[in-house]
Please model this.
Amino acid sequence: MALAIRDVSEHDLDAVLALNNAGGQSIIALDAVQLRYFFERADYFRVAEIDGHLAGFLIGLREGGDYQSPNYRWFGERYPSFLYIDRIVVANAYRRHGLGRIFYCDVTSYAEVRVPQLTCEVFLEPRDDVIVLFHGTYGFQEVGQQRMGPKGRQVSLLAKELPSYAYVRETWLAHGGLPDVPWLAERLHSTPTSDPRRVAGERHA
Model:
């Protein structure tokens, strides 16, 4: 089995959309316009490809964006710098094979050289103890709860401290940015951005 984790490409979007909307009640449905927003704006948007087939994806956004998710905004009101995991989806055929942990290892590797916090939420209605346990064993702690709108579901808001960040900040980010090597590169966006953090790897509060 050949596994590749790579940045999403435009030709993946139809398959990503279909996979997202087959994800069940734990994943909020998307339309093509919403997915295009992530394609153009997400700081982290990678897919898993197994033997040439799309097996899953994960989307993450840095602080300071115009994303209107109430959970993203909750973190934005409380944390000056973070990467927010908006969603992770794994195809049914590839579940229970550790792909979620592989994605979380990859997104942690991306985040820990850029931000001090990795954040996300899990639904409490309905509660999925497997998902709650997964995040707890991966170092996330609950930092709050909220309801997603007057008739929305209750969520647990989670954050994970990234202890490597302080070392990276003092060693590289405060002195010109991350080294220019492929594994530290930002993903290429389909629209230009003037956000300096994408160039220097740091946003100073």
